[in-house]
Amino acid sequence: MNQNLARVCVVLAGLALRGQDQHGFGPVEPVPIPEMTATRHDGVRVALREVLQGRRSAVQFVFVDCTTACPILGSLFRKVDKSLGQTQGQLVSITVNPERDTAARMAGWLAQFQASERWIGLRLEPADLRRLLQVFKQEAGPPTGHTLQVFLVDDAARYAARTIDMPSAASVAAELRIGMSGGEAPELSTRLGAASGREVYDGRGGVLGTVGADRLDSRASRCSGCHGARAEGGAEGKTVAPALTREALLTVRERRGGPSSAYTERTFCEGLRRGVDPAGVRYSDMMPRYQIDGRTCQSVWQFLTQPTGAK
Ligand code: HEC
Question: How many angstroms is it from 311 CA to the middle of ligand 1?
Fold first, then answer.
C-alpha cells in the first residue's frame, strides 16, 4: 500500500474522530448532477444521472487502499444499508483513486461490507470525478485529501444536502427515508429532524457559537456541555444553565425576572441568534450566540421538545 496515502488517511481519521467540522451541514440550493458516464462495480457502464434518478441517494468518496478513514466510511454505509427498508434509498461509494481502483477492486471493497443491492460502487474518469467534486464544493486533490462528508442527492438527481464529516448512520438513514412513498408523514419528519438536532446539541453538528467577540470551538459550543447530556440543566460555580427539557421550554413561567413566558420554535431560535428570551429579557453572556439556519435550529427544537424528551 502506498505509504503516503496511508499516512494522510490516518490524519483524516484523526480529524473525523475529533468531530471537527468546518463545512457546516444541512440542505443546499439543489444543483443538478452533471451528465457523465461511470463504471459500476459490476463492470457495467452507466449514465450517472440515470443511476441517481428515482430515489434518494447518499454519496460518499472512498478508495480501496485507504485503510483508516474509508473502512469507517464503509461501516457507516453498512449500518445505513442494514437499517433501511428494501425499497428505500441508494448508497453510492465513488472512488477518488480512479487510476488504481477498477470496477473489480470496488466490488471487492463493497463485498467486505456485505453491501446489499442498493449499495453500488462507481469509478469515474478523472476529469469527470473533478467535475462531480466541484458540484459538491470539494477540492479535487490527491485521493487522500478526500472529504468525509456524505452528500445527499434527491430523486431528481440533484445534490440537495450534505452532512457533517463522518455523520451518524441514523442521520444518513433519516435523509434517505425523506420523501419515500410520496412524501413523509409529519411525525416521521419530526423524528428525522430530532435525530440531527441531537447531533447539534451534542456538538457534532458543526454549529459554532460566539461569546462576545470570541468564536468558540465545537467543544465549547456544544449545548450539552452546559445544559447537560439530557438537557437536564447544569451549574458551574454561580452560573446556571437552565434545563432545556420539553417541560422546561413549553411551560409558561417566569424566566430571569421577566413576565411569564413559554418558548415556541420561533422564540427559541431568536434566543439562540440574538440572546433574548420570549419575554424580551436578555440572556447573560454565558449563553453563547449562534448563527444557526432555520432548518438546523428547527431540528434542535424538535430534538428538545419531542414527546419522549431529550434522551
Ligand atoms: C457555555 C455554556 C452554554 C452553552 C454552550 C449553551 N448554553 Fe444555553 N444557556 C447558558 C446559560 C448560562 C443560560 C442562562 C442565561 C440566563 O439565564 O441569562 C442559558 C440559557 C439558554 C436558554 C434559555 C432557557 C430559558 O429557560 O429561558 C436556552 C433556550 C438555551 N440556553 C439554549 C441553548 C442551546 C440550544 C445551546 C446549544 C446550541 C446552548 N444553549 C448552549 C449556557 C450555555
Answer: 18
